[in-house]
Design brief:
The protein is mainly alpha-helical and 520 residues long. The protein contains 17 helices and no strands.
């Protein structure tokens, strides 16, 4: 279940204000993934004004993407400490300020620091909190919500590139950067939408042992509730083998971890991280080299550029469609295998199209690539949520983005160097396809062989709405009691709410080793 809401009772609303949150996530995802690529339309003007080469100018987008991926743990820590909404508001201001300051740059180094570092950091501080908040508002419809939010990437890429070209023609690159900086202020509006989901009611006073603690409210619920692996429950009972409590004792408060690196020991997370690393090595390479590959095959420049539009149009349709498909009751428990299938399909598309030379064959490749690429984009974060649970999702997402940043800095640049050295695109497509297909095969085999614990879960403990069984263990983290004292602002944790009629003294326990927790 989503953090920030009780496991039983009200739960994530799966609608209502959540649709406004989904719209904000759509916009933020579009800016995060589309903006670094759309800035490339200004490169020729920057090369002329600064007298630099293409590789030096292209570092602006590379630094922006590196900040987007590499600052994931920083974003996790800030979300845990301050909550989603304040982090997104600050991120929107940073992203806008970076582009505004870049419009006054006189050297490439200043562009690296402003448009690259500052704007990239601002986009990162918007992207990750928006995904966390989306998980708090949706559970039963979460695959569909993730698919719709992911569709913002191709939509904004298709819109920002021609918009940037028009701004360049009418106002020059400095005026274009200034106006794009104003456009990024919409991220602040998206951040303002991210109010925490409603809880079951006011938090009761803690001075009575008979009063069960309720869910944290306001920003404490969204910030601490989205916290990375913050455990609940402590005391002497928590020290017994096979017994863990989910409720903090009266007079004590749980300790929050700003970044739960212990999630790395989770087998499901380790499998997902390795899969994402292998995937990122080759997933983006064909799209980056596609236009030049078509031109070398004798395709006219205008037709070669249109191939990316074909990929974008198919991608726009594939992401929400795949999200809706993954939300079906029969398929949702097997979303990891669906993700594996999408990766294998993408890899096989690269392998089968390595020798494509005619324009018709390249268009067919773009359709197949856009379909499989859209499936991967729609499912990647849903698989992570199902693997680690909503409680650990913020820390897991930050660490995965850091792993992906390393792969992105290795894969595409290495492919570019191989093209320069070998003058042969065919080998690059074979390598990229093999890496992505290997990621899909590894994900499927590891899920089948190494993650069988979900099969041992009794049917009655499956999460409501067909959610993955691993989410029932999302709160199985180490915890310890702290001395009695006043609670710090934002330090309250969302705790389990007993069902009506249950005695307050009955805490949720894990009855024995290897068994999942069960609500009383």
């Amino acid at each position: 279940m989503g953090a920030g809401g009780p496991r039983r009772g009200e739960g994530p609303p799966d609608g209502g204000w959540g649709w406004a949150v989904l719209g904000a996530c759509f916009v933020v995802t579009g800016f995060a993934y589309g903006f670094p690529k759309a800035v490339s339309v200004f490169f020729r003007a920057l090369m002329r004004d600064f007298g630099a080469g293409y590789s030096d100018t292209a570092w602006v987008s590379s630094i922006m993407l590196a900040m987007l991926y590499g600052t994931g743990p920083v974003s996790s820590i800030l979300v845990t400490r301050f909550g989603c909404r304040p982090v997104m508001l600050v991120g929107g201001l940073l992203a806008s300020a970076g582009m505004v300051l870049a419009s006054f740059a006189t050297r490439l180094l200043e562009l690296y620091l402003t448009a690259g570092v500052l704007t990239g950091l601002g986009l990162a501080l918007n992207f990750q909190p928006s995904l966390i908040m989306l998980g708090l508002y949706f559970e039963r419809r979460r695959p569909l919500a993730n698919g719709l939010a992911a569709a913002g990437s191709p939509v904004f890429l298709s819109a920002l590139s021609p918009l940037g070209q028009q701004l360049l023609e009418h106002f020059g690159w400095r005026g274009g950067f200034l106006l794009l900086g104003g456009l990024l202020l919409h991220c602040c509006a998206c951040g303002a939408v991210m109010r925490p989901p409603p809880g079951p009611g006011p938090r009761p006073r803690r001075d009575s042992a008979d009063d069960p603690p309720a869910d944290a409210d306001a920003e404490a619920g969204a910030g601490a509730g989205a916290g990375a692996g913050a455990g609940a429950g402590a005391g002497a009972d928590a020290e017994r083998p096979g017994l863990r409590l989910r409720e903090a004792p009266p007079g004590g408060r749980p300790r929050r971890r700003l970044l739960d690196v212990a999630v790395c020991a989770d087998r499901a997370f380790a499998v997902y991280a390795v899969t994402k690393f292998l995937m990122a090595l080759g997933l983006f390479v064909p799209a980056i080299l596609l236009v030049n590959y078509a031109k070398d095959a004798g395709v006219p420049d205008a037709d070669a550029a249109f191939l990316l539009s074909v990929v974008g149009f198919v991608d726009i349709v594939a992401r929400p469609a795949c999200g809706a498909l993954a939300g079906l009751a029969r398929l949702r428990p097997h979303v990891a295998y669906l993700f594996s299938l999408a990766l294998v399909a993408n890899g096989l598309t690269d392998l089968s199209s390595a020798r494509a030379r005619s324009y018709g064959a390249l268009v067919a490749f773009c359709v197949a690539f856009g379909l499989s690429y859209g499936m991967v984009g729609a499912l990647q974060f849903e698989v992570l949520m199902a693997a680690v649970g909503s409680l650990r999702f913020p820390s897991a997402l930050g660490l995965v983005l850091l792993v992906e940043a390393v792969a992105v800095l290795i894969g595409p640049p290495s492919a570019g160097r191989l093209v320069d050295a070998l003058k042969n695109y065919e080998i690059i497509f074979y390598l990229a396809g093999s890496e992505v297909a290997l990621a899909g095969i590894f994900m499927a085999v590891a899920t089948k062989c190494c993650l069988r614990r979900s099969r041992d879960t009794p049917p009655g403990q499956v999460a409501e709405g067909g959610a993955s069984d691993t989410e029932d263990a999302e709160a199985e983290v180490d915890s310890e009691a702290l001395p009695t004292g006043a609670e710090e602002p934002g330090s309250r944790e969302p705790l389990e709410v007993p069902s009506p009629g249950a005695r307050p003294a009955e805490a949720e326990v894990e009855a024995g080793p290897g068994r999942d927790t069960k609500s009383v």
